[in-house]
Request: fold
Amino acid sequence: METKYIITEIKGNTLIIKLNRPEVLNAMNLEMRKEILSVLKEYENNNDIKCVIFTGTGKAFSAGADLNYLLSLNSESEIKEYVDFVHSLLNYIRNYPKPTVGAVNGTAVGGGLELLLTLDIVIASKNAKFGQTEINVGLIPGGGGTQRLPRLVGIRKAKELIFLGELISADEALRLNLINKVVEDDKVLDEALNICNKLSTKDLELIKRAKELINLSFENTEGLQREAKCYIEVLKREESKETIRAFLYKRK
Reply:
């Protein structure tokens, strides 16, 4: 299928999805998210594809949600429709029947980090940076960050990352179990492909079943539903929209 905001490539038994809005650090608008969903649906039952890699073009993995798009959401129904779609997409990726690997080529913040939180294995470049930075633009995590981040890094560190909105290095992310491995900047995609090649030799049905059970042990749908509701309430606030505008136009 033709796509505008992502690039897809197949290498061996691996599908590679590259977020492709480098001019805005691969910020994810609704169209990009829909393209990701369509491509994943297309290959879900393709037995030749054993693994999926997510990465970015340019110097970032993803800066998260497209703030200009968020400002365009004027009514509560529009906001709810957007938030519900984001949650459903991330839940779909988290439970995708094939193993998923993140190849973090640069900064991954906000919704970019929340995408990584749904993946099975994450490889990062030495210079990658990570952050749950929504508070800096007048928001809270709205794609599962309040629920999934504490399960990986612990409740106190998650509160620190979410409350302060500060960035951490790849080495710190590794220490916190946020990612699996750090490699040289030019080796990220190669290492992700190496892992996918190993996964391709395994029984995919067994990986699928194991993934279902592991994910089930961390299931908390009530928390995700509450997060979505809170995010809608926050994005409706004029104070939040003013903070987003200030961030976009680099003013206080």
Q: What stands out?
A: The longest helix spans residues 76-94. The mean pLDDT is 95. The chain has one domain: 6-188.
